[in-house]
Amino acid sequence: MSSLEELMVFRDVVLTGNITRTSQRLHMSQSSVSIQIRNLEREYGAQLFDRTNRGVRLTERGEVLYRYAEEVVSLMLEAREAVPVPLR
Amino acid sequence: MSSLEELMVFRDVVLTGNITRTSQRLHMSQSSVSIQIRNLEREYGAQLFDRTNRGVRLTERGEVLYRYAEEVVSLMLEAREAVPVPLR
DNA sequence: TTCTGTTACGGGAGGCGTAATCATC
DNA sequence: GATGATTACGCCTCCCGTAACAGAA
């Protein structure tokens, strides 16, 4: 099942529309980003992006996942802040 | 960063209050459950459970994570349904 | 030929289960 | 001794980066 990292990578690819650019921004290889996207597509049984020679473009089903990803990622980031805080 | 599986295991341990019972319910070994809980504690820098000889009991910080985990897991399960659905 | 995405491949890290260990009752 | 959690250890899968490949402008 998908890790939070995969969702964060997915989110960034949606923003940049470009696997190469995301790989640079997140300091990882092209292939790693490409494969993470492929894994998400397999996991959800849906094509998330259309591939073009200029980059990638979100599909309708990709947009559905994107809305969930935004919510989940922001919750998880919030949790990372809230959980370890000493309760005084 | 934590996977959804880890959060689902955490959630189940909270419900059972017992690592062994969760390992049986989820068909995995004690050690695997134990280590996943330990990993979450390291990741969040907080003790999530008090260990007793009868099982484990959620700490205050564990409760904070639990609320997030509930929300995140239900969102992810919802996404699994929603994303692959052909749009009519 | 340049830009972008995908595939092949090898190495290293991490996850799993078995089994041993520790602690408490 | 029974119960429940942790640790040790070996295996095996999976993830990553490098590099080669494919297609389009």
Automatic annotation (TrEMBL), chains A, B:
<dbReference type="InterPro" id="IPR036388">
    <property type="entry name" value="WH-like_DNA-bd_sf"/>
</dbReference>
<comment type="similarity">
    <text>Belongs to the LysR transcriptional regulatory family.</text>
</comment>
<feature type="domain" description="HTH lysR-type">
    <location>
        <begin position="1"/>
        <end position="59"/>
    </location>
</feature>
<keyword id="KW-0805">Transcription regulation</keyword>
<protein>
    <submittedName>
        <fullName>LysR family transcriptional regulator</fullName>
    </submittedName>
</protein>
<keyword id="KW-0804">Transcription</keyword>
<dbReference type="GO" id="GO:0000976">
    <property type="term" value="F:transcription cis-regulatory region binding"/>
</dbReference>
<dbReference type="InterPro" id="IPR000847">
    <property type="entry name" value="LysR_HTH_N"/>
</dbReference>
<dbReference type="Pfam" id="PF00126">
    <property type="entry name" value="HTH_1"/>
</dbReference>
<dbReference type="GO" id="GO:0003700">
    <property type="term" value="F:DNA-binding transcription factor activity"/>
</dbReference>
<dbReference type="InterPro" id="IPR036390">
    <property type="entry name" value="WH_DNA-bd_sf"/>
</dbReference>
<keyword id="KW-0238">DNA-binding</keyword>
